[in-house]
TrEMBL record:
Domain of life according to the entry: Bacteria
Protein name per UniProt: SCO family protein
This protein's record includes keyword tRNA processing: no
PANTHER family in the cross-refs: ELECTRON TRANSPORT PROTIN SCO1/SENC FAMILY MEMBER, LINALOOL DEHYDRATASE_ISOMERASE DOMAIN-CONTAINING PROTEIN
Organism: Amnibacterium flavum
């Protein structure tokens, strides 16, 4: 990934408690989104849109590992992520870890997030973050990204084009 501004490395724990790195997913495309389970608007909307995109891809989606990496490791334990994803977004694998490891993953993807006070949150804080989804090829190279305003059909069309051109 030397030519890309996106490094794509991570060393985290999945929502089943298994240690994973970017190498775990070699041979599969990765659709990577950073967020947190207590997010009330952007994350659920994006995960719903990405789920719709994956459904639009049909069998092609079997070649993709959809990953949801937390920006709030203090609250998002593997168990919290497992319950959240299995109940709402079962296609996704949640990744978390220590603050240091999550910070390293965010840096590798150039993701911004910063904990801030939020009186509406039961814990008194939220974690505003960048809302970009990354597409990484089976060799671990960043190939595309999707901003928050991209719709499910546009994402599916671009992902389909990438997957079909790589066959």
């Amino acid at each position: 990934m030397a030519d890309s501004p996106i490094d794509g490395r991570f060393d985290l724990v999945d929502h089943h408690g298994q240690h994973v790195t970017e190498q775990t997913y070699r041979g599969r495309w990765m659709l990577v989104y950073f967020g947190f389970t207590n997010c009330r608007s952007v994350c659920p909307r994006t995960l719903t849109k990405l789920t719709d995109s994956l459904e639009r891809l049909g069998e092609l989606s079997d070649r993709i590992a959809p990953l949801y990496i937390t920006v709030d490791p203090e609250r998002d334990t593997p168990e919290v992520m497992r319950i959240f994803l299995e109940n709402r977004f079962p296609r996704f694998t949640g990744l978390t870890g220590s603050d240091e490891r999550v910070t390293a993953a965010k840096a590798a993807y150039r993701v911004f997030s910063q904990r801030g006070q939020d009186p509406a949150d039961p814990d008194g804080y939220a974690v505003p973050h960048s809302a970009i989804t990354y597409l990484v090829d089976p060799d671990g190279h960043y190939v595309d990204h999707f901003v928050d305003t991209a719709d499910a059909e546009a994402i599916a069309d671009r992902v389909r084009a990438r997957l079909e051109s790589a066959q």
